Amino acid sequence: MPGFGPFRSRQDALMAACPRVLGLPNAIAGRPDSPNFELYWRTSSEYCAWIYHTPDGMYEMSMLAVSAVQDDARRRQCSLPSTVSDPRYRAEEIQYMFVIHNHPYEGEISRNDIRFIVEQGAVHGFSAEAQGRQVPLSIVAFYSRSERGNPTCDGFFQYIPLTRQLLKWSVGDGGAWKDEEYGRVEWVGDDFDILYEER
User: Which end of the chain is less packed: N or C, by CB atoms within 10 Å?
Assistant: First the structure.
């Protein structure tokens, strides 16, 4: 992605990707209780990309994908290729770390998101070595609570297939990021249940 990074840490790459993705045209629909939400939802778009690790020890973001046709009025989706083409590196040198995308409003990881990242794990592996440690593959959905036209990066949802954790990240007091496990995915054959944490 031109003008993005590269970044030494995966946290820095995610924090830079969040406002970049949410600032794209129609990436947010605002809050569901907003008077214009239905209109904004119908015209919203979902963008997706890979964040990957290179032999140089850096994190990069692929070009963004977006689907012009949405075949289900209840959800938004984008079609992300399984591989990144970066002419600087051989295909086997690229380590796949995160699938990132936006949710037009503060919505948790969807069942389709879960299935997609598991499919990608079957292709690339469910963890990869980066800077001397194993990093689990995951999918991230950025969200903003602000109105359209003034997006803020308010957090993201994350699913990590290796640990089965569903996490919600948000900005806490003092501007520090905090995570909360809101559920786990339990697979039964080819299907799964989401077990939510009691609150």
Answer: C
How many other β-carbons are positioned within 10 Å of the β-carbon of residue 37?
A: 18
For every residue of 128-189, DSSP letters joined together read: EEETTEEEE-EEEEEE--SPTTS----EEEEEETTTTEEEEEEE-GGG-EEEEEEEEEEEET
Distances (CA, A) of 1 to 10, 143, 152, 196: 16, 21, 21, 36
For residue 160 the two structure tokens come to: 């990590």
CA 133 from centre of chain: 21
Residue 56 neighbours by CB distance under 10 Å: 12
Using CA atoms, how far apart are residues 75 and 82, in angstroms rounded to an integer?
21
> What's the one-letter identity of residue 102?
N
Instruction: List CB contacts of 18: < 8 A, sequence separation 6 or more.
Output: 142, 153, 156
Residue 159's closest CA among 132, 131, 194? Answer: 194
The H or E element that residue 50 is part of is strand 47-53
- Residue 147 CA to residue 64 CA, distance in Å, equals 23
pLDDT averaged over consecutive 10-residue blocks of the chain (199 residues)? Answer: 90 95 92 88 92 96 82 72 95 96 93 96 95 94 88 95 97 84 95 90
* Predicted TM-score (pTM) of this structure: 0.93
